[in-house]
Amino acid sequence: MSETPATRFLRQHKIAFIGHVYDYVAHGGTAASAQGLAVDEHLVVKTLVFEDEHAKPLIVLMHGDRKVSARELARQIGVKSVAPCAPETAQRHSGYRVGGTSPFGTKKALPVFVQQSILDLPKIYINGGRRGFLVEIDPRHLLPLLNPVLVNVALEK
């Protein structure tokens, strides 16, 4: 697997990771990637690009088997509303194609919000910057790398 902006970012910051390739399934989401890697979907972290009411982009990291409460996220971060971006808008903000969006090495620096319970996991599988490619890392690396705001906005799917 060739380098991506995400893997370059991790290497530059001397973060140990294990790359995992799987057969990408269009619209398969984290269920398909978890199945492809034979791991619990709760350990697969999705990178979601949202915008607030002023069209300011932000990234939300969420467990694969949960969804984001947009209302609760807006409340916790002090904005009127947030909503997921359209795929082409998300790509413009992050520099990654939807299905391959990583929080590492984005085209422009975006504020990052992390579901707090992700930090309690022993390891996570998060997109490595390409469809069909996840990196396995210690979730505690998210704090110094991304300087995220911790939120509690998970809903059952």
Overview of the molecule:
This protein is globular. By secondary structure, the protein is of the alpha/beta class. The chain has a single domain, classed as YbaK protein. The longest helix has 9 residues, at 29-37. The strands form 2 sheets. Strands 1, 2, 3, 5, 6, 7, 8 and 9 form an 8-stranded mixed β-sheet that branches. The chain has a two-stranded antiparallel sheet with strand order 4-10. The model has no long low-confidence stretch (mean pLDDT 96). The protein is 24% helix and 31% strand.
What's the SSE blueprint?
Layout: H1 5-12, E1 18-21, H2 29-37, E2 44-52, E3 57-63, E4 66-68, H3 70-77, E5 82-84, H4 87-94, E6 112-115, E7 124-130, E8 133-137, H5 142-146, E9 149-151, E10 154-156
Parallel strand pairs: 2-7, 3-6, 6-9
Antiparallel strand pairs: 1-8, 2-3, 2-5, 4-10, 7-8
Q: How many angstroms does the end-to-end distance come to?
A: 32 Å
CATH hierarchy, class:
Alpha Beta
Proportion in β-strands: 25-35%
Shape: globular
The CATH superfamily bears the name: YbaK/aminoacyl-tRNA synthetase-associated domain
Ranges with pLDDT <50 over ≥5 residues?
A: none
> Which structural class matches the secondary elements?
alpha/beta
The radius of gyration computed from the alpha-carbon positions, rounded to a whole number of angstroms, is 14 Å
Could you give the count of β-strands?
Answer: 10
Stated plainly, the CATH topology is called YbaK protein
For the biggest sheet, the summary is: 8 strands, mixed
What is the number of domains? Answer: 1
Architecture in CATH?
Alpha-Beta Complex
Estimated helix fraction? 10-25%
Give, in order, the helices and strands.
HEHEEEHEHEEEHEE
Return the average pLDDT rounded to an integer: 96
